[in-house]
Amino acid sequence: MNTLLVIDDAWSASRVLRAIDQGSHLLWQGDWHNGRQVIAAIKRRLRPGGSDFETYRRQRARQVQAVNAVLVPLDSTYSIGARRAPDVHQACLQAYGEPSTDRLVPLQELLGVIGAHQLRRRGVFIPALDARIHPYYGVFAPTRSEYVDLVADAPLPGRTAFDIGTGTGVLAAVIARRGLAVTATDISPSAVVCARDNLARLGLPVEVLRADLFPPGRADLIVCNPPWIPARPITTLDHAVYDEDGELLSRFLLGARKHLQPRGEIWLILSDLAEHLGLRSRADLPELIGRAGLEIAGGADVVPAQPRAQAARRGLSDPLADARAKEVTTLWRLVGT
């Protein structure tokens, strides 16, 4: 670690930023709520913008680096050493597991841990299930449920299904509710535990395995909602959205056919955001589908209604927001050639 400076309420956001730019990490020992305001001020001052996505990503990386330089002490009982700090024991237990030693953690990360705990407790209502899904820390939350509706409405082939990269288990739950025997996979241990918990809450007998893409055997239906932006992740949570060089998408499509039963279907749920950002052409996906020995049998589209897309339509000006204003998510129904 670089120079560690102890800071408190006397430090302004400008002074904090100057110290960060000089290579320092900062140990916050002031009031908890004042610390949150400093983080918010840094984020405002370093808000990503620019006229192109590469500039936006560079500025976003700088913002992440800056906010992560402000640390708070977290002791071996998950107590925070700051005035008026909340009780974060349960939130940290869910995110980090059993405590062991004192540590320093970024204040921004701890805010994310607290937010994830609140979301997990509250859950996300999924209309297609008429029930709530409870995301774990570090597992992508299905707050954009319109893609779930695509899976709920598409005509089903056969009796068995694989859900690849299941996350919270939301798509596995929808497919199981529709009567198929489902096996779900994820490479993330947290996602596997999260999906098992959600599916148990719903009383659905879905097998959830830790695997890099496919489980053993074949299925009549293989479903995947992969990360949709082929760029390098910056944060841990970015891995749910960013797939560097489209590596996961390529491996999924090129490997799916050998796990598919005759006359089965592959459902690829994918946003076209990468096209609007200039990271993938409209011809790239059909070309990859053809190289995988697959062809397009049909599909369905939906326009995302999440607040960020709505904000973009109201004129928010950065490349990602502009692209979200045009975004369409498609369920591609693929079959073997």
TrEMBL record:
It comes from the Bacteria. InterPro entries: DNA_methylase_N6_adenine_CS, N5-glutamine_MTase, SAM-dependent_MTases_sf, Small_mtfrase_dom. CDD domains: AdoMet_MTases. Keywords: Methyltransferase, Transferase. GO terms for molecular function: nucleic acid binding; protein-glutamine N-methyltransferase activity. The keyword Transferase applies. Residues 158-271 form the Methyltransferase small domain. GO terms for biological process: methylation. The keyword Methyltransferase applies. Pfam families: MTS. PANTHER family: HEMK METHYLTRANSFERASE (PTHR18895), MTRF1L RELEASE FACTOR GLUTAMINE METHYLTRANSFERASE (PTHR18895:SF74). This is Methylase of polypeptide subunit release factors.
